[in-house]
Write a structure and sequence with these properties.
Pfam families: MARVEL. The chain is mainly α and 154 residues long. Helices cover 62% and strands 0% of the residues. Helix 4 packs across helix 6.
């Protein structure tokens, strides 16, 4: 018990974190243009999606909303998905997703593509109506292309 004071240290210390370096992104921050993505099928498809989406929401914006408030929701979805596609395209083009390793990129892109597919069912219906109109026009031309002689059924 006589050697007790010599074995005890009275100095205090502050606990240090495991690493003295602050958390950082993986790698230095540099802008790198991925030219191979521009020429790839997913890159080309995203450009087509952005162009068609821009045309789509421009056409929706030209509609008078007074008689159908549901168009506001359609506009929200169209613009939201267009913005999401544009952001994902830019992030992939500049390889930002490689620096943010904590996010599951294939799942994020898959969710966005699935949402676009759900929105694209409206396009399939429009194509079906267009095809029906085309075949009705062909049938009308086969009948001589003239208006009916009577408009009242007998």
């Amino acid at each position: 018990m006589a050697d007790f004071p010599s074995k005890v240290s009275t100095e205090t210390s502050v606990s240090q974190p495991h690493s003295s370096q602050p958390a950082r992104m993986a790698g230095p921050i540099t802008v790198q243009l991925d030219v191979s993505f521009i020429k790839s099928i997913p890159g080309i498809l995203m450009v087509v999606e952005m162009l068609l989406g821009l045309i789509q929401w421009a056409l929706i914006a030209s509609v008078n909303y007074g008689w159908a408030p549901a168009f506001i929701w359609v506009m929200f979805v169209a613009v939201g998905l267009w913005i999401t596609t544009t952001i994902l395209y830019v992030m992939t083009l500049f390889s930002i997703q490689q620096r943010l390793t904590g996010l599951p990129w294939p799942i994020l892109v898959g969710r966005e593509t699935f949402a676009l597919l759900l929105k694209a069912f409206g396009a399939f219906v429009t194509l079906a109506y267009g095809a029906s109109t085309f075949f009705s026009f062909l049938s009308w031309r086969e009948d001589g292309g003239s208006p009916p002689t009577t408009t009242v059924p007998t």
